[in-house]
Amino acid sequence: MAGVCGKSAVSFSVLKRSFSLRGSPRSVLNGGGRRSAQEGRLVSCPPHPLKTHRHPAYLCFSCQDSMSETLRTCYLYLNQTSRSFAAVIQALDGELRHAVCIFYLVLRALDTVEDDMTIPLEKKVPLLHDFHKFLYQPDWCFTESNEKDRRVLEDFPTISVEFRNLGLQYRDVISDICHRMGVGMAEFLEKKVGSMKEWDKYCHYVAGLVGIGLSRLFSASQLEDPEVGRDTELANSMGLFLQKTNIIRDYLEDQQDGRAFWPQEAWSQFASRLEDFAQPHNLSSALSCLNLLVTDALRHVPDVIVYLSRLRNQSVFNFCAIPQVMAIATLSACYNNPNVFQGVVKIRKGQAVTLMMQATNMGAVQSIIAQYSQEILQKVSIIDPSREKTLQILSVIREKSLSPAALSSRAHHLSPIYVSAAMLLAALSWQYLNATAGQPPGGTDMPGH
Predict the structure, then answer these.
(1) C-alpha angle with apex 402: 396 to 407, nearest 5 degrees?
(2) Proportion of the chain above pLDDT 70, given as a percent
(3) I need a surface site. Which of 21, 73, 124, 198 has the fewest CB within 10 A?
(4) What's the pTM?
């Protein structure tokens, strides 16, 4: 039962998925069921004086000795539950790395409660509402979950003790976001996403709040300017862009799991039931709805460009930029694509590695966004109902992606050390992609914010 229990012995099992996004709600926290290639390879090291990117493999193993046993356990849980984000979190500079690791694990535990359909609503709702309070209850854990990620609940004392070891500036952010997300998740437990405004609200709860929380942590660490943490509108857009991309891409998987996240206001224009889109004779209507939702997701891209242009720290920039370029590439692959309703749409391994290598400075990110926006433009049909709106937002994106103001707002020259790190990142990313190649449909997740 939920409540006080003794701290369990440390044991490890392969859990579920990552700061990518899934769940019910499909949140930016779920990831995949395989261990990361970097499992156990984390350490605490001072930031590089040049603020160049450092892949986890660059962190000195001897520094593990300076970490507490509970903190090492937290990083092992991070690698077990997060395929997509374990590497980029461990590449963050200084104490921000620990803060983001604990932030992820706290929200992963919260999301595991929400995901578990065996927990009755009368028990689940209070758990979600009060979850932020458990951070200050040293012995609290939950042992009734049947989810694959249940270890983060069963051994929550290990996570909560490291939460309490963080600085107050980090604890306040994590507790506040945990509280707000728990309340939002509870709201949508039995509520379907109806209007487009409700879609935005739902995505805000499960993804936008993650973006806002991360931004506040970036600023609290002083690696980024206070403006980054204060501008919640831009941070929210970062999360919404990733969340909507995942929801759009995962139509078929969600239908097969008996879940629905496409907003009724959108799909009801083209069908009487959302599941009808999976029928081949409804393909034309299905594509019209798909393109409408892609167009809606694209409206967040201008905010993404502005947000990224404000970042100063290289490790933070990489952490934020890589998921965003993966998302625009995924949307381009999904746009007007019948395979969304017939199978799995995902970008190629080589394409993913190239994006990871390239998305290291603002100029490169703008070029990538411009490239995939152009690809979408070339696929816009003259008879598509959303054609005018699609062309309008693509025009805005093109203007932003070519803007010299965003390009000049941050330094983007690569040192030889950084180029070497980027090459290593690509090599390890290829190893990760090969490790996940044999997963069932829907198993490969796009990183979330």
Answers:
(1) 120
(2) 75
(3) 198
(4) 0.80
Q: Give the pLDDT of residue 258.
A: 85
Please, are residues 156 and 170 in contact by the beta-carbon 8 Å criterion?
A: no
With left for phi above 0 and alpha for psi between -120 and 50, is residue 223 left, alpha or beta? Answer: alpha
What integer pLDDT is reported at residue 359 of this predicted model?
92
Q: Which of 17, 150, 151, 249 is catalytic?
A: 249
Under the banding of pLDDT at 50, 70 and 90, the label for residue 344 is confident
Catalytic site residue 72? no
Q: Which of 19, 218, 317, 319 is catalytic?
A: 319
Q: Which two tokens stand for residue 248?
A: 């759009």
Give the separation between CA 4 and CA 159, rounded to whole angstroms: 15
Three-state DSSP state, 112: helix
Does 319 qualify as catalytic in the annotation? yes
Cα(429)–Cα(419) distance, integer angstroms? 15
- pLDDT tens per residue across span 115-168: 898 999 999 999 999 999 999 999 999 999 989 999 999 999 999 999 999 999
Q: Given 77, 202, 251, 372, which residue is catalytic?
A: 202
What does the radius of gyration of the chain's CA atoms come to, in whole angstroms? 21
Secondary-structure breakdown of the chain: helix, strand, coil percentages, each rounded to the nearest 5 = 60, 0, 35
